Amino acid sequence: xxxxxxxxxxxxxxxxxxxxxxxxxxxxxxxxxxxxxxxxxxxxxxxxxxxxxxxxxxxxxxxxxxxxxxxxxxxxxxxxxxxxxxxxxxxxxxxxxxxxxxxxxxxxxxxxxxxxxxxxxxxxxxxxxxxxxxxxxxxxxxxxxxxxxxxxxxxxxxxxxxxxxxxxxxxxxxxxxxxxxxxxxxxxxxxxxxxxxxxxxxxxxxxxxxxxxxxxxxxxxxxxxxxxxxxxxxxxxxxxxxxxxxxxxxxxxxxxxxxxxxxxxxxxxxxxxxxxxxxxxxxxxxxxxxxxxxxxxxxxxxxxxxxxxxxxxxxxxxxxxxxxxxxxxxxxxxxxxxxxxx
Length: 342
Ligand code: DAH
Hints:
BirA Bifunctional Protein, domain 2; about 350 residues; two-stranded antiparallel ribbon; binds 3,4-dihydroxyphenylalanine; 2 domains; about 40% helix; about 20% strand; alpha+beta
């Protein structure tokens, strides 16, 4: 029978093409060519109705068998090719995780920030809370509430940047003492890092610099507590061996007032040419004192019941001393060659 012969041929051509397909795409092409709408097998199927009735059944069965055989060969071939292609892709895209990585530069903490972290960590360890306040401050918090009334000569010592309407760039972090006391009842134990501003520029002064303020208010606090606290802080930052001394001083908002010196941690006072202390043996470190009762009363604390101590230090200056940096302006110029040294 002519039709049967034709089916056999179509089928063997199809199987040959399927077997020859080198990729899933070629296998798909073979499917379209041999099983698609315009393929020979599809045409045979469509023409079954025109055959003499006694041939229809046999020819129909043969066409269906042929189609099924080609389909199953295609399925197998596709599975084979897809597996091989996946393997090939995995091989191409494989990453060798044992190769050394590409190193990328790490950032550095600014020397001032290192000192701030050391000091703040120390006080947090003692149970102090960290507080912050605004850099644009009112005249009242920056001066008046700290016992520096309008017209007082102490104001002109601070080289203030004045803004409009009674506002200033804060000249110190001390106003945060007042803000803290107004926001809570005693006892108070806070440490306050922040930026401050003064109209000043030379190798040891920049218009913006940093301070760390401390304030403790409680029953029975005395100068001895202040001294012990600051001595422990100095040892934490500059090393176990450093000694301290208090010198009498004057600040509007403390009475009595002191300045704290730290023994030179480089030469200990033994070297007259020491680059850090210049032979003095001592380094000025900070201002401090017992909170003036007038300041406690201003915020509504009972100065008969509570006493307090306060201190303010300059972490930029401390970093200059600790790392031997001669010019403060280097700290704020953002020169990476400078910063990378730390
Ligand atoms: N605010 C002072 C200044 O900027 C530093 C200071 C001195 C802060 C004594 C204090 C203190 O808390 O008790 O010069």
